[in-house]
Design a protein that fits this description.
ATP binds at residues 362, 376. It is built from 19 helices and 17 strands. With 575 residues, the chain is an alpha/beta fold.
Length: 575
């Protein structure tokens, strides 16, 4: 196992050095060219990968993240710092008012809610901006214009405009530069202003009150999706504490909506609305809206129904304000208790928007010949419950039409402080024939795309987490670990377990997908792809995969894992 750690660390170090060295070479070449913050510097020689490699230097390393957590005693300083960075980038907070922002937070479903909302308003003919996180394959997915990730050329152009303004002013500010997410938030503000969007939908990163998106002075409407336990070291260890953070996006006089919440967090949201001075309405069930027949959703899963209802309320409220003759002077809506939101009749544009919404990596199904992939980035126990419900509904539908034996395979990883054992316990009843674990490394080669690089966690820690997850799965399935078992592949490199259980650990996502598909997925069978050799005894374990009529693969536990898988499974996302 130690040898695997060392091999992966060498690969990672090579990739990291290549990315950072490439960046600093370019920066050195251009360091003599300084620009006023009033100007918009152009660097046409710098391509998209240069921009992404430079962006990656702003990733906070693991030790710095721990320091941030220790300094949470004064979280208000985070927004103060954000205002300073925004100003250094040549932007003013009051300029953000021109973006007519819809601001959305929550623990589960906030991204899907934003996707529904953006699609609805785009159907009305508005030019939309949409900022979300994390990205799945390429970082520019986080910043969308009219539903599409901003093009590489525009991303590169605007990236250097903002980066160089911050770079040239850092010496006067103690050498400080914004961290990765802060920078991307500033970049999104800049792009949406430059591209003159009619509105911008902003998904909160973490929490709400002190999230850097909350630098917004006055949104047009804000929403809260389903609340649960996540990011406890930052937001608090109870759902009530988390609700307090989420309610921090409320603004005086700005209407707020929430999906139905448990009594505890709902009471906190009510108190926050009263304290801040805004209305708070609870969304009705989707079945209550006045429509002919049931509303069809473009996103699968029963849990998407509450997200769709919230999106209807957000878009409806935004439209009401937009079509006022003088929306700027419209009367603010003050707190008068929590009230039910009206179940109005959705317009044709709304109905069409809900049906056409796409949001990759969430309850997504990809069929590649005999191999079908079910992808969902669930990473909390509540979202995993929803994922399991969706998988148990959709997988049997595919299996009934298979005409022969079907193998079920779980590909799992989780990051951060997530309770992996709790999520795995929810997955046990799905009766997987194989459970495969790998870190969120797209492929174990040094030429990995810069969009997929993450310097926040060591490879050793990632692999240790995979081995822990493997052991948890064995325990949950009543399997005893075989003492002294080795992890071996051909050539002596540790890789997968030589034991009689159906659990395996791979060093990267590509190697896991290649083993699972056994050459039966033409997308993964590209002769130009590197294939890691596996011992014959391990290949023998895959006989059921080769003999099955179909292979069904659930990929879950992390959006980063899902994104890494999509990089290989959907080549169009790489263009």
């Amino acid at each position: 196992m130690l040898r695997l750690f060392r091999v992966l660390e060498r690969l990672r170090a090579c990739s990291e050095f290549s990315a950072r060295n490439r960046h600093w070479t370019k920066v050195t070449e251009l360091s003599v060219r300084l620009y006023s913050t009033k100007a918009a510097p152009q660097f046409r020689r710098m391509d998209y990968q240069d921009a992404v490699c430079t962006l990656n230097t702003l990733q906070t390393n693991a030790s710095a993240l721990e320091q941030v957590k220790r300094e949470r005693g004064h979280p208000e300083l985070q927004l103060q710092a954000m205002r300073g960075f925004l100003q250094r980038a040549g932007l003013k907070v009051d300029e953000l008012d021109r973006l007519n922002i819809i601001h959305v937070t929550g623990t589960k479903g906030k991204g899907s809610t934003c996707a529904f909302t953006e699609q609805i308003l785009r159907n009305y003919g508005f030019r939309t901006g949409f900022y979300s996180s994390p990205h799945l394959v390429q970082v520019r997915e986080r910043i969308r214009i009219n539903g599409q990730p901003i093009g590489k050329e525009l991303f590169t152009k605007y990236f250097w405009q903002v980066y160089c303004r911050l770079e040239e002013t850092k010496d006067a500010h103690g050498g400080s530069m914004p961290a990765y997410f802060r920078f991307l938030t500033i970049l999104a503000f800049h792009i949406f202003l430059q591209e003159k969007v009619d509105l911008a939908v902003f998904e909160v990163g973490i929490g709400g009150a002190y999230d850097c998106t909350n630098i917004i002075r006055r949104s047009w409407v804000c929403g809260i999706s389903s609340l649960g336990i996540d990011h406890t070291s930052i937001l608090g260890d109870t759902i009530e504490k988390i609700a307090w953070q989420k309610g921090g996006i409320f603004k005086p006089g700005v209407p707020a909506f929430t999906v139905k919440q448990p009594d505890g967090p709902m009471k906190v949201l009510q108190e926050r609305a009263e304290e801040i001075g805004c209305s708070l309405s609870v969304c009705p069930d989707l079945e209550e809206y006045q429509s002919e027949g049931s509303l069809r959703l473009g996103l699968a899963g029963h849990h998407q129904r509450s997200n769709a209802s919230l999106a209807l309320q957000l878009s409806h409220t935004w439209l009401q304000r937009h079509f006022l003759t003088d929306p700027v002077s419209s009367s603010p809506v003050e707190f008068s208790g929590v009230s039910p939101a009206p179940a109005f009749q959705p317009s044709p544009a709304m109905i069409k928007g809900l049906a056409e919404t796409e949001w990759p990596g969430r309850n997504q199904t990809l069929k590649h010949g005999p191999v079908t992939y079910f992808l969902d980035g669930a990473h909390t126990t509540r979202s995993m419950q929803a994922c399991v419900r969706w998988f148990n509904e959709i997988a049997p539908q595919h299996e009934r039409n298979a005409g022969g034996p079907v193998m079920r395979v779980l590909l799992f990883n989780a990051t951060g402080e997530r309770d992996c054992a709790a999520m795995l316990k929810l997955l046990v009843p799905c009766l997987f024939d194989f459970a495969v674990f790998c870190p969120n490394i797209t492929e174990a080669i040094a030429t990995c795309n810069a969009d997929q690089q993450n310097f926040n966690v060591s490879v050793e820690n990632m692999l240790t987490r995979c081995l822990d997850n493997q052991q948890s799965w064995r325990v949950l399935n009543g399997q005893e670990e075989k003492p002294g078992a080795e992890l071996l592949i051909g050539g002596g490199l540790p890789l997968v377990p030589e034991r009689q259980s159906h659990t395996l650990v791979f060093p990267c996502i590509l190697s896991a997908l290649q083993w699972i598909s056994q050459g039966r997925d033409s997308v993964l069978s590209d002769p130009n792809r590197c294939v890691i050799p596996v011992k014959p005894s391990i290949n023998a374990k895959a006989d059921p995969l080769r003999e099955a009529v179909n292979i069904h693969v659930l990929i879950t536990g992390s959006l980063h894992l899902v994104g890494g898988a999509l990089k290989h499974l959907d080549p169009a996302l790489n263009s």
